[in-house]
Request: fold
Amino acid sequence: MASTSTTALSSSRRAAELSSENRFDQQLARILEHATDVFCEKGYEGASMRDLSRASGMSLAGMYHYFRSKEELLFLIQKHTFGTIIEQLRHRLEKISDPEQRIRAFIFNHLEYFLANQSAMKVLSHEDEKLSNHYGAAVRSVKREYYAICVNLLEQYKRTEKLDFSTRTAVLSLFGMMNWIYTWYNPRQDGNARKLAQEMGDIFLRGIGSSRSSGKKNSRVQ
Amino acid sequence: MASTSTTALSSSRRAAELSSENRFDQQLARILEHATDVFCEKGYEGASMRDLSRASGMSLAGMYHYFRSKEELLFLIQKHTFGTIIEQLRHRLEKISDPEQRIRAFIFNHLEYFLANQSAMKVLSHEDEKLSNHYGAAVRSVKREYYAICVNLLEQYKRTEKLDFSTRTAVLSLFGMMNWIYTWYNPRQDGNARKLAQEMGDIFLRGIGSSRSSGKKNSRVQ
Amino acid sequence: MASTSTTALSSSRRAAELSSENRFDQQLARILEHATDVFCEKGYEGASMRDLSRASGMSLAGMYHYFRSKEELLFLIQKHTFGTIIEQLRHRLEKISDPEQRIRAFIFNHLEYFLANQSAMKVLSHEDEKLSNHYGAAVRSVKREYYAICVNLLEQYKRTEKLDFSTRTAVLSLFGMMNWIYTWYNPRQDGNARKLAQEMGDIFLRGIGSSRSSGKKNSRVQ
Amino acid sequence: MASTSTTALSSSRRAAELSSENRFDQQLARILEHATDVFCEKGYEGASMRDLSRASGMSLAGMYHYFRSKEELLFLIQKHTFGTIIEQLRHRLEKISDPEQRIRAFIFNHLEYFLANQSAMKVLSHEDEKLSNHYGAAVRSVKREYYAICVNLLEQYKRTEKLDFSTRTAVLSLFGMMNWIYTWYNPRQDGNARKLAQEMGDIFLRGIGSSRSSGKKNSRVQ
DNA sequence: AATGAATGAGGGTTCATTCAT
DNA sequence: CATGAATGAACCCTCATTCAT
Reply:
């Protein structure tokens, strides 16, 4: 169940040389990955710093060279995960202009990342409001950004297709469909991200009233 | 944010006399309600027995007359909540035969209970797998029962309407839409259960391919 | 080096019956005495809660039934000690009207308590400003009260004897003489409180300019 | 609140060239000054090596090039401070022969250093017995030397003036008066070292029985 | 000489639970 | 039935110190 995300914690990682800053970031990334898995399994409160240190093979005290507190650790995970998923999304949307395909790209991007980094996403979904104001505000801000992107995609689609539905309910229902996955996903029964994105996209897009989208079995993402 | 569920914990409550058993159940129900709120606010691991005793106005030690452990307390809450929601659902379904209306009744029943007992439902959604095998099995069994009801409703609908979609993905998407509510529900923006059930029902039913349901604005539940 | 102070923590201790409140206070008093000794030996920061629990024969966790934090423990010690010394002082001063004798009574009272409760007084002197604002304010208030009593005694004496000296410097020098004792006191070399009070009283009173007091070898306190 | 003492840690500082040994001593002196302030504010136990390193702007590990342990650091401070104060005292006493003036010089020297180096002196007074036997013996030896000087001055005075008092009590009372200052000194209310030395000298000298000293307002030190 | 990284031991505090009353 | 008192285990975190670089 190990997270497989490749992290890009420091923007100064361009050069190939193993600068000391680099080594620090790599270690931190390693710790973050392990911690993500443990948080996923036991929850934030249920995971002890001893669990986390054991998982990353570092001494309890040593962990504190990389973050100031358990809370900051959760914060770093959330910020990093959200940052990555948004970055990937923007990259994908650049190449697509068709409103429906843009929504399908959003769904696929979300599900692909979700399934590839289940631990991270479960932590993201679950350990939502456990961050105190200081850290919480930063994360909430990134979340709002992500939410706003989805809203814009839907509004654009609504105008193009001349549809009428509550954008808010629609967006939040979509997030619900996607984020609930960690509860039930089973690779054998449920297939990969592409298949799930297709199915959920069908349900959602037809659901919000597109007449065109029904039956369009060969629509593709990326 | 107090739960308002009326509990039916013991079947021996028929008689009007305040038997000692009766008083016991009433006290337990009171504790369960308060504990539900605390679990909702702080999570299962984050809530201490002291928090729970403070919330219910009973001494720490006194709590242990009503349950054997913190884990059993969570179990009782989950069992009771699920029991109540299924009981209500069966009662409603008895009177409805139209397949679509039965699905809409399911959605409305879920959302109505969800919004009336937000704390309980958040605990139900969140503290999912924290129960050890002994208690966990019992709860999982009830959950499967509830899930199966929904699957049956969909299968029936599918046959009637001669539709083609993945029942599993559909059911789980529907649960996702509904269970994610605790994340964002705001009574002022999002209206009451009836309105939300209508909107989500529309999205979902049209989404799975009903041609009839689209535009049917006056379909009613109960 | 055990403190021997008899504590009067609760004013409701009138009755002889061992009420539950009484037992709580007695236990607390016992803990306070032991803690006083440990603070005296190792200092406030140097003494660990584990040291304190060991000294009082109670489990680490059990201590927290009697105070909320280590800091509050120090606070309770200081408040109690100061309260007792002031109470004794007032009792003594009631019976004395001669200004010089009142000052001598002050000195004797301080030294007697100091020598009988060296641990407590060393803690009082040493762990002065370690209390955060909340607790610190309460203790500082009692200290000011004690200081004010001494100032008044000196002012009265000054008027009676028509002397001229800086009351502030005098009072603070007197406290210095007395409070420094814990650094050097040795019962064999330095005698008991009565003798020390006599000597220090002589030095101090003659020092602030009384012509009468010099040579008055037979002045007595209480 | 920075200490302003100019340190003379190594006798090899004669030459003007910046020998490496010289640089070492200068760095050590800098560290000692900062550490003194931190010990003063937080106490020996309360000050962490991280606090000390932060205060001196040097890395945590770097500190250990200058002393073997936190304890040795305290030792170096105490030894240095005491060494300096005794050195200054001897220098002053060389030029004075009148017994009373010698005592007044002692008081002034002590207070002047105290007020100029409050941090150092508070540490000296407070962190008294925290040194283990190895280091403690060395410091105690210097303290005894300082104490002995004061005893000699008093004995000489006693013989000259043909007085009768307990030298021990007198010396220790004097130290008490002087060392207690850090508790209350306020430059605005209490004036400078000269004024305080005058006042305390008056109280003390008259207190131990000198008939001459009373009213002698123009006695000077240095 | 200087530092970042790392650690075992221990810091104060809270945990779920038990038991005599 | 109810509670105050008590506890061992575990909590997060910081300590003084070491060592490779």
In short: Chain D touches chain C through 36 residues (CB under 8 Å).
